[in-house]
C-alpha cells in the first residue's frame, strides 16, 4: 500500500528515516536531498517518521459556552434527532447557534452520526397514541465545570416536535 502525502510534502517516510539515521550535517543532507535545512532539522529531532496532526491540541467551540455545549450534547443524546431537527429545536434557546457550529460540536463529542436503527440497543416499545398537543417532558442532568445544568425537553408524542430549555443548577 502506498504512502499518502499532502500536496506540499517534500519528504517520504524513507527519506525521513534516512535523515534520522544519518550522521551527516544538516547542510550536507539538505544539499544531497534537495530540501530546506529546517526540514532536515525538524525530522532529525522527531522520534517517528509520521506527520503530526495539524490543528488545535484541545479543540473547543468559539461560539458556544461550555454549558451551552453540554446542553447541545445532552439534547442530542436524549432525543437522537437528526442534525437539522436538533438545530431547529435548539435555536430558540441558543439563537447564535449555526448549523456548522452544531455539527462541529457533535463531532467533537463523537455523536455527529446517529446510531444504526438496527443497533445493539434493545427494541423500544411504541408510545401509546395520544392526541396532538400531549407533551412528554423529560429532565436530563448534565455536569459541567461550571456546575450542574438541567435540560428540560418537551416532546409532542404525535408530531415528535421537541422543545429544549436549559437551567443552571446550584
Which features would summarize this protein structure in a list?
single chain, 170 residues, alpha+beta, 2 domains, 3-stranded antiparallel beta sheet, 16% strand, elongated
Shape: elongated
- State the low-pLDDT regions, or none: none
Number of domains: 2
Structural class: alpha+beta
Span of the ends, CA to CA? 56 Å
Tell me, rounded to a whole number, the average pLDDT: 82
Radius of gyration: 25 Å
Proportion of residues in helical segments = 25-40%
For the largest sheet, list the strands in their spatial order: 1-2-3
Number of separate helices = 6
Reading the helices and strands in chain order gives HHHHHHEEE
Find the count of extended strands (DSSP E, 2+ residues): 3
Account of the protein in words:
The radius of gyration is 25 Å and the shape is elongated. Helix 2 packs across helix 3 (37-45). It is of the alpha+beta class and 170 residues long. The longest helix has 14 residues, at 66-79. It is built from six helices and three strands. The model has no long low-confidence stretch (mean pLDDT 82). It has a three-stranded antiparallel β-sheet, covered by helices on one side. The N and C termini lie far apart (56 Å).
Task: Detail the topology: elements first, then pairings.
Blueprint: H1 13-21, H2 26-33, H3 37-45, H4 66-79, H5 83-90, H6 99-108, E1 135-144, E2 147-156, E3 162-168
Antiparallel strand pairs: 1-2, 2-3
Overview in brief:
The chain is α+β, with helices and mostly antiparallel strands. It is 34% helix and 16% strand.
Amino acid at each position: 500500500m502506498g504512502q499518502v502525502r499532502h500536496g506540499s510534502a517534500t519528504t517520504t517516510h524513507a527519506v525521513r528515516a534516512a535523515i534520522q539515521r544519518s550522521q551527516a550535517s544538516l547542510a550536507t543532507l539538505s544539499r544531497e536531498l534537495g530540501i530546506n535545512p529546517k526540514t532536515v532539522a525538524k525530522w532529525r529531532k522527531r522520534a517517528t517518521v509520521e506527520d503530526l496532526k495539524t490543528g488545535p491540541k484541545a479543540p473547543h467551540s468559539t461560539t458556544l459556552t461550555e454549558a451551552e455545549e453540554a446542553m447541545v450534547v445532552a439534547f442530542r443524546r436524549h432525543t437522537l434527532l437528526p442534525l437539522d431537527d436538533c438545530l431547529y429545536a435548539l435555536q430558540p434557546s441558543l439563537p447564535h447557534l449555526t448549523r456548522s457550529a452544531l455539527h462541529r460540536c457533535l463531532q467533537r463529542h463523537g455523536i455527529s452520526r446517529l446510531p444504526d436503527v438496527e443497533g445493539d440497543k434493545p427494541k423500544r416499545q411504541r408510545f401509546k397514541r395520544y392526541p396532538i398537543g400531549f407533551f412528554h417532558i423529560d429532565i436530563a442532568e448534565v455536569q459541567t465545570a461550571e456546575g450542574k445544568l438541567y435540560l428540560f425537553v418537551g416532546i409532542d408524542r404525535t408530531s415528535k416536535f421537541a422543545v429544549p430549555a436549559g437551567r443552571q443548577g446550584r
